[in-house]
Fold these 2 entries.
Entry 1:
Amino acid sequence: MHSIKIKAMNIQTRKLNLIEEFLRISDLSIIEKLESVIRIEKNKQNDEELKPISLNEFHDIINQAKKDKANGRVISHDELKKKVKSWK
């Protein structure tokens, strides 16, 4: 647990150092390159998080949704919108 806190602090410190360094950059091409790297890395991360499901898994999800509806474990779109508004 202690090493997790140290690692988290290290990450926070590194982020702050990076921000400070970034603020000193005056060359637009460097900023554009950094933006590109960030965009590419975020896309890679998003791609890794999105995993396709099998046809059987898809059918299981559909069947569960049908059971939920049949057993009244659903709410209407309007009810959901009201709930979401109350979260703000």
Entry 2:
Amino acid sequence: MSAPTYHRWQQLYGGMKATEAKRLKELELENTRLKRLLADAELDKAML
């Protein structure tokens, strides 16, 4: 692992426990999924 990668990781997850970091990742994935669903719904609404 390169030094910049390590420092970026430390800055993002430095004070977190493993379970907290895992939960954060899950929430980010869920947020992405929900944003995609909203965009699809808005597109469908615009087509009508």
